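Q: I'm a student working through a structural biology exercise. My instructor gave each of us a protein and asked us to get a predicted structure, then write a short paragraph describing it. Mine is LPS-assembly protein LptD. I'm not confident about reading structure output yet, so if you can add a plain explanation after the C-alpha cells, that would really help. Here is the sequence I was given:
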Amino acid sequence: MTRFRARPQPLRLLRVLTALIAAGVVPGMGFAQQNAAAPADDPNGPATVSAEEMTGRPDREVFLERDVEIIRGPTTVTSDRATYRVLEDEVEASGNIRLRRNADSYTGDDMRLKIDTGEGFITHPTYHLGKNNAQGRADRVDFESREEATITDSSYSTCEGPDPDWYLKSGIMKLDTGRDVGTAYRSLVYFKGVPILGAPAISFPLSDARKSGLLPPTIGSNSKGGLDITTPYYLNIAPNRDLTLYPRLIARRGLQLGAEARYLGETYNGITRAEYLPHDRLTNSDRYLLSSLHNQTLAPGLFANWNLNFASDDNYMSDFTRNLTNTTQRLLARDINLNYAGSFWSSTARLSNYQVLQDPAAPITKPYARLPQLTFLSGQQDVNGFDWNADAELTRFWHADLVRGNRMVINPRLAYPIINQAFFVIPKVQVHATRYQLENTAPGASTTLSRTVPIFSVDSGMVFERDARFFNLPTTQTLEPRLFYVYAPYRDQSAFPLFDTAEADLSFGQLFSENRFIGNDRISNSNQLTAALVSRFLEPSGALRARFAIGQRYYFTDQRVSLTSTATESRSDLLLSAYTQLSRSLSFEGNTQYSQSLHKLRRASLFGQWQPEPGKVLNLRYRRDLPNNLEQVEVSGQWPISRRWYGVARVNYSLPDKRIAESLGGIEYKADCWVFRLVGQRIPTATQQSTSAIYFQLELTGLTRLGSNPLDALRAAVPGYQMVNQPRPNP
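A: Happy to help. First, here is the predicted structure for LPS-assembly protein LptD. I'll explain a few features afterward.
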C-alpha cells in the first residue's frame, strides 16, 4: 500500500494529487482548474480534495485527517475526518460535518454520501434550505437522491434563531427540492410553544411553485351562517391545469361542497366553479351555484367565449359569498360569443341573457335577452386623409312580459381630421338608421317602426405651452381649449321601445359625445356646443403633477328627445375636475357637477390620499349624488401603531340617513416569520339588510395561513393598503 503524507502545506498536497491525476492513478478525482470544459457546478465534474494529512491508496481509498474539504460540482463537504472511496465516489465523514449542496446546507456528527448520485445519510443534523430560508433539527437525514431527502424526528421553521416562534414537529418529513414540495407525517404545528394544529400529513411549499395537497383551513364567522369552516384540497393536475375541492361547514346551514377547476392551453383558457348545499337548515331547500368562464381560439382571427352563471335563489350571493363585490351582485350574466376579426373589420354573434337576484325591498326589471345579436364593425384611418367607419347591428330582443322584437341599426361615419402639434379640427358626418319589427305590443300600436337621423359634428382644440413653476418646481404648463359642435335634427321616437337604452350620466367624456343616450333606441336632437378648458402641469420627465379642467354644454334648441319630458334648459350642468400630486406622498382629486339653474351641487367626488411610505396610508373621500339621494363621507387608512402592530380601518357614513353605511376595522401584528390579522366588517347585502363578519388569520411564513382570509376585504376597503410582510422597495 502506497502511503502519502502532507504536512500542513496545502499547496504541496495539491501538487502531489495533481501529479497522480495527470498520471491516471486517481481516475475519480481531479480539479476544476485542470478541466476547463467542466463547469464549477457540474455534478459529474472532477473532485477537489484537500486535508492536512492524507494516507491510503489514491486509486482506491484515501483517508483524510484535519480540515478536510471535498468539492465536486455544487456539493461541498467539510469535516474533521473522512474516508474517500474513489471507485464508489463515496465519502464517509465524522466530526464537525458540514454539507453544502446548491443553496442548502446540513451539519451533523456522522455522514455517508455518494457524491455522484446524492445518496447517503447524516446523523443528528441541523439543516437550512436556501429557497425559503427554512431550518430545523432532526435525528437523521436520509438522502434518496440529489433532490429528495427523508428527515426523521424533525423540526421545521422559517423563523431564525435557536428558539423559533413557530415550528412544525413531525415523525417523518420528506423534502423534494425538485418539485419544491415538503410533506410532514405525524405532524404538529407549535406556536409560542403551544400546539395549534395537528394532522396525519401536512404538505407545504419549498418555494412559490404550485403543489398538490391539503390547504390550510379557512375559519370565520358571520351573522347569517354562524361559524364557517372551509378545508380546501388543491390538486396540481398539470402545469396548465388544477382543481381545488373545498368542503365548507356552515354551522347554521349544513355542509356545502364546492370545486373550482382552472385550465390554460395554447388556444384556450377558463375557470369553472360549482357549489352545492343539500338541505339548507335555515331555508329548508337545496342551494347551488354554477359559473363557467371560457375563452377559445378556433382559428386565426376566429374566437369564441362564454360566461355562464346560475344560482339556486335570489339570496345565494349575499348568504354565501365572501367577496364584497359579489355580495351585492343582482345580475348573473349568461353570454355566449363568437367573434371574427379581419384586417379592417370584425363581426360578432352573441347570445345573452340574465338571471336577476331580486331584492323584495327594491325589485328591478329583468333586462332584455339578446337571442341573438349580430354586429359588424369596420373602419380605416387616413384613406387619402379621411377616416371612415361603418357599423351594423341586428338583434332580437326577448322579454316574457314586455314589448319584444327585432332591431336593425346601420351607422356609417366619415371624418376628415386636420391635426398638427398646435391644434386639431375634425369635422365628421354620419347617418344613424334604425328599423324595428315588434311583437307583444299594445292593441292598435304599430309593429313596424323606422328612424333615420343624419348627424354632423366638428371637434376642435388648441394646445399652448409655457415654462412655469408648481410649488417651486420647474414644470411645463399647458392650456388646452376645446370646442365641440353637434347638429342632429329632431325625430319623434316616443313610440319606440327601450330595449337597451338609458340616459348617460354627465361626464367629461360624455360632453364630447354626439348622443346623450347609451344604446340605440334614442338619438337625441342636437344643436349644441360644448366648451372645455384643460390645464396641465408636467414635470421635465413628463410626469403629471396637476390637472385642472372645466366644461359645459350649451343648447341652442330644446332637448325634445327624452325618456321623461322635454328639457328646456339652455345649458348642461357645469363640470369641474382637478387633480394634483403635491408631493410623492400627498395627492388630491375632485370632480363636481353643479346645476346653475337649481343652484345645487348635483354630484361631487373628492378624494385625498397621504401615503408617506409603504404600510402608511390615510384616505379621505366625499361623495354626493343628489338624484339618488346619496351623500357619504368615507375615512380609511392603514398605519403602524408600534414597531410591529398595524391598524387598519374604514368608516363610510351616510349623511342623509345619519348612520354608518359600511365599516371595517382590524389590527395586524408582524413578527419576523409570522403575521396575525384580526378584522371585523359590516356591509349591506340588501336594501334593509346587512351582514357582519369576523376574519382572523395566522400566517406562518413559508408554511401556511390559518383562519379566514381578510386580504381581499382590506384591499377593496382601503385604497393603498399593502400587506405588512410584503417586501418593501429600497429607498
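A: Here are two points you could use in your paragraph. The chain has four domains: 10-213, 214-398, 401-581, 608-731. Residues 10-22 form the longest helix (13 residues). It's a good idea to check both against the output above yourself.
Q: Great, thank you!
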